């Protein structure tokens, strides 16, 4: 069953990708989407076995992979509770995104390729979550990176999409650099890359130290931090986050599937999968906690000032991933996975909802040109609101259960890092509520401001039905943001293929927390549910129930404060945001430039790399090595290039001759003496 | 007899093509293709009859031709077998790739390739040190001719440079060989491989051989002949140059340096590591700024070859196995990349990257193959490149975490220059009408690229098929290395650490890991 679940998407990807031009778009779409629904159904069956029946984990070996000396890597599928949770998330969201793309990508001439990439991605992600060893996990890790690269750059004629695709791949490679070294170090220390064997041997290595780059380091700390660098890359944590917002260049369904629900959570999954290792290093946990908290704060602060609807949600994703990391760093792995689970539903919902808005607004993504859309696309509006309620943690929604669990666990943990994370997290909940409701108000409320949009004007004047990719809108300056009115444009609600996934995800965003919170974070049922597939600290989960009541109510307070502030700033007194921006221009610039990370990296890494490359090529290869090497030799021997010229005719033959005569003469000279002397 | 047959058959075909009167271009092409396919068939036969369980040399032939100076002594172990397979696999594809693009002096061209194939097989099969030397050095002569006659505008400069570098190394190696034979009293490679030379002599012998092998690899800083040679060589020449000739250096290290000078190898790992580390970072950065496609791939070859040297001198099973897989993998992948360049060069007659763009649109089949080989080059898991890089680095880490740290940056830089190349060639908008008018791959071109694709996937998903024959041979080398004292490196490049030895179970001990 698990084999079919995992390999069906690969098979359908190959059919659609290689045969798409032959069998046509519709069969390609039927094959890929159908395959994913089959996989999703199987995933729920497997999940139910673990959830309801308390099934035991198992492994399905497939094939030998890399065997060398004492290194033995297999292809194998490992299934336990943690995997089952990920299977459900990955296949469900993927199936719904496939379905959604029928409507969203309807006009695209390369649909088969798109669906093939989506299915290929799903396969790689499934290999990642079923990995029984670190190397197969790395296979999935890089595989999803490839699919992400291809999908971000799907509209390959757009320079910005190409740049974003390369950036995503290369920044992820920086993370993979750490991940690789982590695997190497793990293998050296544990003599195996099998996850079960490593985790079993962790206690024996706690406190051990080894030499890394000439420094004496704690073994578990070094390994965990190296692996964590990988997680930071894939999950866009502060420092390696710069690719995620740019990844929004990809089609919106991709953003929902890869850059919200599944791939970016791989880092969280990795840490939970390897949680006994992190439990063995307090330092590593502290680092994870601080990085997570810092990311949550950073991304939320940038989300406040974004005007592109997808980028707001992208930064929100980044920020929520920060929550998951500091939950894991605080030892609440169950809570981290719980938030991963619920977040998949409501963030996919928000992205697909945003896609529906973008679809309705003729590919305009700038919220400054939205407004008053709730009357025109009421279903999208309702479902976006559901997603926002869940994201901002309104009572009894999915986000309420998971975010509260994280904050309470951070508080209950008691370490200073976790305390810090708690306060940051509570404050970020306020920011989250503010920017989320800001998005809703700017998009769905107020007066229509569509007239200023290039896209809308384009639609009205030319009645031109191009896809995002083939319009050259990026080169056009936007119209006047102050222009109001509809310009005679009538947005339409999206087709059912796009709305049905929204409804299903909406159900998850509302109910997933209530239904499963006992299993994921319950002090009583949690250990039974996880069954050792992650380090479950029942006593921490118990302590969550005994935190002071102000801690319990903090997220709700944050919700209402953020909602109120957004309402005041964007509906009651809409001129206020501009006044604030004008009052603190430095802060505003700092935020709109995303804390200047891109500029910094460009100045420190990208441009120097090219400059040094040019320097080494010209100064190193040409003016040093060649000048004093072959060219110099020619000058020395025969004065300039004439030697080379004289060589034209006979050099090959002279070479052969020199070689043969030299060999023969030397052999004749040396050998008799040699053997005689013996 | 099969090895002699494989060496003599292409020579015979070459002589027939050139000597018989009235051989047309078409006949020459067909003869060359049939001959190379026959050799591939013999290669399959060789592999299928190969016993992977023993380290003993197989298919041994020993004809004491000019004993004691030179014997026609042939034989293969798994390492030789795999490199011979690589050669006979690539050769028919090279003939096919030259089918239309070479129109000048076709019979001579085909003869040059056939003779080169013969000499390459001879190099990998030779069991006599002077026989090896003859094949090893003579193998370059057809390549000089191919570059010098069928090459591009600056072909003379390129082949002169190639020649000059090679000559220097050869002379030193020959002197070294003479000393060795004199000292050990035999020209038999097998006997020399178990002869214990004085460690001080080993040091100088190592350096003499190093001069030759480092040029062939090529290692930094004696790499500058490679970009020029590649740029000027015709497509098929580049494929053989990158695919097989660059493997001669690595083969030399594995066949001579490691087993014959084990003490010197262990003492001089710092030299190899340092050059490899510089090479990866240096040439990757240089590759980033290239505007000529072939130069870019040539520089990437230097970076990949640095993985081979670093892995070999990690002096453990994973490192050496990884290096050998890297040699095979790079042979396939870089060969395929040069073929990919050749495909569009045939259409537009420029290697200038800026003249291309948007090929994903106009040549979708081509874009797919090119993407695949790009990904194989950056070592995406499930391609052969990953298995190779992974084994090299995991082995290297055991010996020196610092070296592994620096070499691993290659995966970042490699991704950067290859994706930047791919983006400029395949994505974006087409640069001009002539670019847009280029037709997609022909059946012949698909027939060239598809076999390599399958081989790369096979080696990436189930490398066991390729590793198993080599394992006994590597085990033999490891026995030779066992117990040699590793060099103590300066503290910033610590070697003995890299392992938490004092805190780990005693099973792992300092020094070389068997």
Describe it for me?
The complex is a heterodimer of chains A (678) and B (514). With 678 residues, chain A is mostly helical. Among the domains of chain A are: 281-450 and 482-592, no CATH class; 593-646; 652-678. Chain A contains 28 helices and four strands. In chain A, the strands form two sheets. Chain A has a two-stranded antiparallel sheet with strand order 1-2. In chain A, strand 3 and strand 4 form a beta hairpin. Chain A is globular, with a radius of gyration of 29 Å. By secondary structure, chain B is mainly alpha-helical. Chain B is built from 23 helices and two strands. Chain B has helices spanning 2-19, 25-48, 78-101, 106-125, 129-138, 140-150, 155-184, 189-193, 199-216, 225-232, 235-260, 262-267, 269-288, 293-312, 317-348, 359-362, 364-377, 384-399, 401-426, 433-436, 443-461, 464-467, 471-481; strands spanning 58-66, 70-76. Residues 489-514 of chain B have low confidence and may be disordered. The chains are: A mainly alpha (678), B mainly alpha (514). At the A-B interface, strand 1, helix 5, helix 6, strand 3 and helix 26 of A face helix 5, helix 6, helix 7, helix 13 and helix 15 of B. Chain B: This is NADH-quinone oxidoreductase subunit M. Chain B: It is found in: Endomembrane system; Membrane. Chain B: One of its GO terms (molecular function) is NADH dehydrogenase activity. Chain B: Residues 65-120 form the NADH:ubiquinone oxidoreductase chain 4 N-terminal domain.
């Amino acid at each position: 069953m698990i084999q079919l679940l995992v390999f069906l998407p690969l098979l359908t990807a190959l059919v659609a990708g290689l045969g798409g031009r032959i069998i046509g778009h519709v069969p390609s779409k039927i094959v890929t989407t159908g395959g994913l629904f089959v996989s999703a159904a199987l995933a729920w069956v497997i999940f139910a076995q673990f959830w309801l029946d308390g099934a035991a984990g198992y492994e399905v070996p497939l094939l030998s992979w890399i065997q060398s000396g004492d290194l033995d890597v297999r292809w194998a599928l490992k299934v336990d509770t943690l995997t089952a949770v990920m299977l459900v998330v990955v296949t469900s969201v993927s199936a719904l995104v496939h379905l959604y793309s029928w409507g969203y990508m309807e006009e695209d001439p390369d649909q088969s390729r798109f669906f093939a990439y989506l299915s290929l991605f799903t396969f790689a992600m499934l290999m990642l979550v079923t990995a029984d060893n670190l190397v197969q996990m790395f296979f999935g890790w890089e595989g999803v990176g490839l699919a992400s690269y291809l999908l971000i750059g799907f509209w390959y004629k757009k320079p910005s999409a190409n740049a974003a695709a390369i950036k995503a791949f290369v920044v992820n490679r920086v993370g993979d650099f750490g991940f690789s070294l982590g695997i190497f170090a793990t293998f050296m220390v544990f003599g195996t890359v099998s996850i079960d064997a490593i985790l079993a041997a962790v206690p024996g290595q706690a406190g051990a130290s080894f030499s890394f780059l000439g420094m004496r380091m704690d073994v578990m700390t070094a390994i965990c931090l190296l692996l964590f660098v990988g997680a930071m890359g894939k999950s866009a944590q502060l420092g390696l986050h710069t690719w995620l917002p740019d990844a929004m260049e990809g089609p919106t369904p991709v953003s929902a599937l890869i850059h919200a629900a599944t791939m970016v959570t791989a880092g969280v999954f990795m840490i939970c999968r390897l949680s006994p290792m992190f439990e063995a290093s307090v330092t590593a946990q502290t680092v994870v906690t601080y990085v997570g908290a810092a990311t949550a704060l950073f991304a939320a602060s940038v989300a406040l000032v974004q005007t592109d609807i997808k980028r707001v949600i992208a930064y929100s994703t980044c920020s929520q991933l920060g929550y998951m990391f500091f939950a894991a760093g605080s030892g609440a792995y169950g809570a981290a996975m719980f938030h991963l689970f619920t977040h998949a539903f409501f963030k996919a919902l928000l992205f697909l909802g945003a896609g529906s808005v973008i679809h309705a607004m003729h590919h305009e993504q700038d919220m400054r040109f939205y407004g008053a859309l709730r009357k025109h696309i009421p279903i999208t509006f309702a479902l976006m609101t559901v997603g926002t309620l869940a994201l901002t943690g309104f009572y009894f929604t999915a986000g309420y259960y998971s975010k509260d669990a994280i904050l309470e666990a951070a508080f209950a943990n008691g370490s200073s890092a976790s305390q810090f994370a708690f306060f940051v997290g509570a404050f970020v909940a306020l920011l989250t509520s503010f920017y989320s409701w800001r998005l809703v108000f700017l998009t769905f409320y107020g007066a229509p401001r569509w007239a200023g949009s290039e896209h809308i004007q384009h639609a009205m004047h030319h009645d031109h039905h191009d896809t995002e990719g083939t319009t050259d809108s990026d080169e056009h300056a936007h119209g006047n943001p102050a222009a109001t009115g509809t310009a005679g444009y009538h947005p339409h609600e999206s087709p059912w293929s796009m709305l049905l996934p929204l409804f299903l995800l909406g159900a998850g965003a509302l109910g997933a927390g209530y239904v499963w919170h006992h299993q994921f974070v319950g002090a009583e049922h949690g250990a039974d549910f996880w069954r050792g597939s992650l380090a479950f600290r029942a006593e921490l989960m118990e302590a969550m129930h005994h935190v002071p009541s102000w801690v319990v109510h903090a997220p709700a307070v944050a919700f209402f404060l953020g909602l109120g502030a957004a309402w005041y700033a964007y509906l009651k007194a809409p001129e206020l945001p501009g006044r604030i921006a004008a009052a603190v221009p430095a802060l505003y610039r700092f935020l709109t430039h995303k804390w200047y990370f891109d500029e910094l990296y460009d100045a420190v890494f990208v441009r120097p790399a090219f400059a040094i490359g040019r320097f080494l090529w010209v100064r190193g290869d040409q003016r040093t090595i060649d000048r004093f090497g072959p060219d110099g030799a020619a000058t020395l021997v025969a004065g300039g290039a004439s030697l080379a010229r004289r060589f034209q005719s006979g050099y090959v033959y002279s070479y052969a001759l020199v070689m043969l005569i030299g060999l023969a003469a030397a052999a004749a000279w040396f050998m008799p003496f040699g053997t005689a002397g013996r | 007899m099969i090895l002699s047959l494989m060496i003599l058959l292409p020579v015979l075909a070459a002589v027939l093509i050139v000597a018989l009167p009235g051989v047309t271009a078409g006949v020459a092409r067909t003869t060359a293709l049939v001959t190379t396919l026959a050799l591939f068939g013999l290669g399959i036969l060789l592999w299928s009859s190969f016993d992977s369980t023993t380290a003993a040399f197989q298919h041994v032939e020993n004809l004491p031709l000019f004993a004691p100076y030179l014997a026609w002594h042939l034989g293969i172990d798994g390492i030789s077998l795999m490199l011979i397979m690589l050669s006979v696999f690539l050769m028919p594809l090279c003939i096919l790739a030259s089918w239309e693009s070479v129109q000048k002096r076709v019979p001579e061209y085909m003869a040059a390739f056939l003779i080169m194939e013969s000499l390459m097989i001879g190099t990998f099969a030779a069991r006599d040190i002077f026989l090896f030397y003859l094949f090893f050095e003579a193998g370059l002569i057809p390549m000089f001719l191919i570059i010098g006659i069928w090459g591009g505008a600056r072909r003379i400069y390129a082949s002169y440079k190639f020649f000059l570098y090679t000559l220097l190394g050869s002379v030193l190696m020959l002197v070294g060989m003479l000393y060795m034979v004199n000292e050990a009293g035999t020209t038999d490679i097998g006997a020399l491989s178990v002869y214990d030379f004085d460690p001080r002599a080993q040091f100088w012998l190592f350096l003499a051989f190093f001069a030759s092998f480092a040029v062939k690899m090529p290692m930094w800083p004696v790499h500058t002949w490679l970009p020029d040679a590649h740029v000027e060589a015709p497509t098929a020449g580049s494929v053989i140059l990158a695919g097989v000739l660059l493997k001669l250096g690595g083969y030399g290290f594995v066949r001579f340096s490691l087993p014959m000078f084990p003490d010197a190898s262990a003492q001089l790992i710092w030299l190899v590591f340092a050059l490899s580390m510089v090479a990866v970072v240096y040439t990757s950065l240089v590759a980033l700024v290239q505007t000529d496609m072939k130069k870019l791939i040539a520089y990437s070859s230097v970076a990949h070859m640095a993985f081979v040297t670093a892995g070999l001198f990690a002096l453990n099973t994973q490192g050496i196995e990884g290096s050998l897989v890297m040699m095979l993998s790079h042979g396939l992948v870089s060969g395929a990349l040069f073929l990919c360049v050749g495909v569009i060069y045939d259409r537009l007659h420029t290697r200038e990257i800026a003249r291309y763009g948007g090929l994903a649109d106009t040549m979708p089949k081509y874009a797919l193959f090119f993407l695949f080989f790009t990904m194989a080059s950056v070592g995406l898991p499930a391609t052969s490149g990953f298995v190779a890089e992974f084994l090299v680095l995991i082995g290297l880490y055991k010996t020196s975490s610092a070296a592994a740290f620096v070499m691993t940056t290659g995966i970042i830089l490699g991704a950067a220059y290859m994706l930047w190349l791919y983006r400029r060639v395949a994505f974006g908008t087409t640069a001009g009408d002539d670019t847009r008018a280029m037709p997609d791959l022909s059946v012949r071109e698909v027939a060239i690229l598809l076999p390599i694709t399958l081989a790369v996937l096979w080696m990436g998903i189930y490398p066991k098929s390729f590793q198993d024959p080599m394992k006994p041979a590597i085990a033999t080398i490891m026995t030779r290395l066992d117990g040699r004292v590793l060099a103590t490196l300066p503290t910033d490049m610590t070697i003995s650490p890299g392992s938490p030895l004092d805190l780990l179970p005693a099973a792992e001990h300092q020094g070389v890991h068997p």
